[in-house]
Amino acid sequence: MRPRAVAVLAVFVLTALLSAQAPRQVSLIVHNGTVVTMDGARRVIENGAVAVDGSDIVAVDTDAAIRKQFQSSETLDAGGQVIMPGLVNTHTHAPMVLFRGLADDLALQEWLNKYIFPAEAKMVSPEFVRVGTRLAALEMIQSGTTTFVDMYYFEEEIAKETKAAGLRGVLGQTVIQFPVADAKTPADGLARAETFITQFKGDPLITPAVAPHAIYTLDGPTLKAARELSKKHAVPMLIHVAETRDEIQTARERFSTSPVAYLDSLGVLGPGVLAAHGVWVNDADIAILKSRSVGVSHNPESNMKLASGTAPVTGYLRAGVPLGLGTDGAASNNDLDMFEAMRIASFLAKLQTVDPRVVPAATALDMATMGGARSLGMERLIGSIEPKKRADLIVVSMKAARQTPMYEPMSHLVYVTRGDDVLDTIVNGKILMKDRKVLTLDADAVLKDARAMAVKVRAAVK
Ligand SMILES: [Zn+2]
Asked: Which strand (E) or helix (H) includes residue 169?
């Protein structure tokens, strides 16, 4: 071989070697943390890191391995704390944060009929839901929720504010039998829902949905029409199911059956349906929900506060029903802290069954992450830190006295951590909160607007 050819070959080989080893440029690397992945093997990676490109997670590994393969102009140092998937709140009514503490210590029907429905009749407007959604978004970002499921009015306004805050939302336009602020009739509500669905379908952050309120506030034809709408557009249907004993009584008197069996007889149960609460269900109901691939949202704090009852969590888990966790609206909780929801879900299940082994920390954590994703049929997109999923993750401080010492991160995340311990919140690859500072909302303005709206709420219910 001539010297010149040798030189050319040497340059070629060198270039190939260098390009094989050159780290790939990505948009964000979150590093220097204990990564609680919540993947199939529930891997916990000490000294771990997550590489994010655009909206997606591209790799999760040890810090050293990630640094070798990737580089980025933007990095987020987790400071040795916990990196975990963002929390999925599967049931809330975001603007109801403005009714927080307005009427406590009442049963659901009295609370709804005497306070909430009248207050909503006077107060709910596009401006009201915008102010409320901004407040709820601030609280959710600050406490590590990255996806929330909503059922309310003027849902298009909620969607716009959710997008502006950078959160992921599965948002359901409410359909209800009586006249409400955004619809005079259920038909108006359905038409509104369809417009809303068409407007936001395919959005990277918003999954539009239809939300028929419940069997006791809707007739059969409207329930069927809502399900048809969800099927037509392949979007979720969100509904309150078997929340209280009153609802069981209503189903027995009007339909001679249970709420779940009644909904099944209408043909409205199937994949894409998310049933909130599911407190008063028997084994036959659970079997129906399982066979129809219906997801369930468990809301232990709301169920306790309204004394609605205790959902059979172990029954759902045994049957393999996709089970997520929710806070419900802040007016019946009274906050949107999913860490608290996890702890209460675990404790309540233990108390109910008189068995401390049920709903261990890992199970509660699963309900707030992968379980929520599965209940929404979004398990390929969110719920765990795995390549190809959306980059929805949070960094959680483990430095407080109440978190010291730490033997097992999952135990601490469920049994001692609070929403306030969240340091950073990332959704769809974008940093929404860095070191407790929310970057997508003007926190002072959000609180000021909420307090001003509360003055009007108080005047409206006097
Ligand atoms: Zn609710």
From this structure: strand 168-175
Output the CA 93–ligand 1 centroid distance in Å: 6
Q: Contact 200/173 with Cβ under 8 angstroms?
A: no
Overall pTM surpassing 0.85 (yes/no): yes
What mean pLDDT, rounded, does the chain reach? 95
Looking at residues 354-371, what average pLDDT do you find?
98
Going along 397-446, which residue ranges are E strands? 422-427, 430-434, 437-438
Å from CA of 411 to ligand 1 middle: 28
Per residue in 133-150, is it b (16+ CB within 10 Å) or e — as a string? Answer: bbbbbbbbbbbbbbbbbb
- Which two tokens mark 27? 């948009």
Kind of pairing between the strands at 273-277 and 237-241: parallel
Is 86 buried (19+), middle (13-18) or exposed (0-12) by CB count in 10 A? buried
Longest dimension (CA), the chain: 97
Rounded Cα distance between 309 and 457, Å, is 29
- Residue 244 Cα, ligand 1 centroid: separation in angstroms? 12
Sign of CA dihedral 339, 356, 298, 364: positive
Span 383-426, pLDDT tens digits? 999 999 999 999 999 999 999 999 999 999 999 999 999 999 99
Q: Residue 92 Cα, ligand 1 centroid: separation in angstroms?
A: 6
Predicted confidence (pLDDT) per residue in 229-281, tens digit? 999 999 999 999 999 999 999 999 999 999 999 999 999 999 999 999 999 99
- C-alpha neighbours within 13 Å on the C-beta side of residue 169: 33
State the Cα–Cα distance between residues 99 and 456, nearest whole angstrom: 11
Residue 172 near residue 191, CB atoms below 8 Å: no
Whole-number Å distance, alpha carbon 31 to ligand 1 midpoint, is 37
Q: Quote the crossing angle between the two packed helices 186-200 and 220-232, to the nearest 10°.
A: 10
Q: Is the pLDDT of residue 218 over 90?
A: yes
CA dist 14 → 10, 18, 20, 71 (Å):
6, 6, 10, 21
Select from 41, 45, 29, 42 the least CA-distant residue to 82: 45
Compute the distance between CA of residue 49 and CA of residue 61 in angstroms, rounded to an integer.
6
Beta strand 56-62 with 430-434 is: unpaired
pLDDT digits (tens, 9 = 90+) for 105-145: 988 888 888 888 888 989 999 999 999 999 999 999 999 99
CA of 240 to the centre of ligand 1 (A): 6
